Structures are given as C-alpha cells and as structure tokens.
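Page 47, continued from p. 46.
Same chain as before, 228 aa.
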Amino acid sequence: MSSAHSTGKLTLKNILELEDPALSCNFRLVFTSLPVGIFASIASSINAVTSYLWGTGRSFLGVDLTLTPGHNDLVSARCRSASIAATSIEPIIVEHKGHKGVYPGRRVQENSATFEFLEDQEMSVSTIMRAWMNEARRMDDNTGKPGKNKTADEYLGSATLITYKQDGKYSAGYVFRSLWPTQIGEIQFAGSNAEVVAVSVTFAYDVCHFDSNAGTTLWLKYRDLLPG
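Result:
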C-alpha cells in the first residue's frame, strides 16, 4: 500500500520518503531592472552600479553596464537574508440560529519585502538605495519622478528571489514587479569592536507571484552571462 494514502501512524520510513527540506540559505536575489536615473545621480560610484544591474545592455558614460558573472556574484553575496510579507484570506462569518459558517473573503497581500545586505568599504549598497529612493521622492524638495503606468516607470524596478535545491539546481522563486525602496534601516558603527556593516532595505511592490520556473526563466534570458 502506498504510504501517500496511508492513514496509519507516521513512521521514520514515511519521513525519509519525503523530498529534501528547503534550506533558508539556498536563495539568490537578482535585481532584473533598476531605474535609469540612479546611474546619473551616482556617476562617481559606477563600479557599484555595474554590480547591481543585471544584463540590460545599457551603457552609461561609456561604461558597459551589462553584467558579467563576476559582477553578479557580488550582488548575490551581499544579500544576506530575505523576508517576504505574509498573504492571507479574510474569513467571512455567516451566523444564523446559533450556527456559524466560515467563507473566504478578500485575499490580502502586505506588498512589502525586506532584504539585508552586507556593505562594502565604499558603502555601495547605501549609495544605490538612497539614489533609488531619490527617484521616488527627494528629501530636499519632496518631489519625485512619475511611475505606476506602462510608459512612465521612472522609479520602479523589478527583482527575482530564486530558491535552489540541494544539488544547486533551480527550484522556484518569487518575482517582484513595480518594486521601490520604502525604508533604509539604521546602520550601526561602534569603536568597541570590529564587525561587518549590514544594511536592511524594505521594498514595496505592486505584484509578487510565486513562479516554479523563475530560475530557469532568468537563465534562459541571461544564459550568456551566467554559468550553468
């Protein structure tokens, strides 16, 4: 009898027949597009920019911004953790004569994700993220660039969080559309010890969908830049 349909007591054999568990460390964050205006505002940090833009074929001040696998490795290594907000369905309760029926109501999504990055000595992550924030809303005059439509998305980007199997093959992923940073977390320095500096960035997005082929889709698009 197949253990999949067994109603008996769970055994070690049943556990060992399961797929390998997903590991929290088997992920990779890829920014598939960034606002073009970031490049102009941090021209002095052009090396940092090329570390964050993946394969768009753009050039800026004579510098080719198409990533090599080496540049992309810098981005992957810097993202230390990722947290995706929960999604839920609001329950609708119908009461009648002492009885209750529970039905699905609205599907609710929090529309936020937080990523923690390891900083380098040039503070590249903070530089890029602050420049990206300025595209949406500047501090000095509280103005920003247009977005939220198909022809004027000047502050919006996109990203994919890829997950991997134990053997290193692509598993699945989360695809973020219309992405922009809402908060750059505090950065701590201390003279009492020496620790790596990390920065946490929270993003808002319009759409996040789970894609079982996310890794394969990116590889097919950027196969000339990526190993494997």
